[in-house]
Amino acid sequence: MNTKIGKLLLAAGICMGAAPVLAAEIAVIVNPKNPATRMFSEQAGQFFLGKSSLFTPIEHTDGPLRNEFYKKVLDKDSVQVKAIWSKLVFTGKASAPKEYGSSAEVKKAVAADVSAIGYIEKSAVDDSVKVILTVQ
């Protein structure tokens, strides 16, 4: 009896471990009137790390989408990004990005500011914003 249960648990564990984790596609967005049409991840990352002030970054509050964006685009975690921004704000070199709690709020903020750049789930994109980068 124990052998059967052990085999079932082992099989279930193998199946679960083999299941791919499906992540949502992330769209980096700007205002439709912004002249930018395309951007590489490295370029977009510059704005979210305070290395360029050409665009104003609009952030999500902490959460899975933000963590995934940081990992895939910035190659950093939220603690590292927070430390970078803390230093920039403390030295007076930059102001921290505005943060919003949902993709709808980020989209609305980007749609209202020609110089803004943000990221949302690709499924949340509509005509109020323009996608310049898709991150998978």
Please give a structural write-up.
By secondary structure, the chain is α/β, with parallel strands linked by helices. It has one domain (23-135): D-Maltodextrin-Binding Protein, domain 2 (3-Layer(aba) Sandwich), CATH 3.40.190. It is 43% helix and 18% strand. It contains 5 helices and 5 strands, in the order αβαβααβαββ. The chain has a 5-stranded mixed beta sheet with strand order 3-2-4-1-5, sandwiched between helices. The chain is globular and about 40 Å long.
Rg, Cα atoms, Å: 19 Å
CATH class, please?
Alpha Beta
Strand content: 15-25%
- In total, how many domains does the architecture comprise? 1
> What does the largest sheet look like?
5 strands, mixed
User: Please, what is the average pLDDT?
Assistant: 86
Distance between the termini: 45 Å
Strands side by side in the biggest sheet: 3-2-4-1-5
What is the topological layout?
Layout (H helix, E strand, L loop, with lengths): L1 H17 L7 E5 L10 H8 L7 E5 L3 H11 L3 H13 L7 E3 L2 H9 L4 E6 L8 E6 L1
Parallel strand pairs: 2-3, 2-4
Antiparallel strand pairs: 1-4, 1-5
Using brief descriptors, characterize the structure shown.
5 helices, D-Maltodextrin-Binding Protein, domain 2, 136 residues, five-stranded mixed beta sheet, alpha/beta
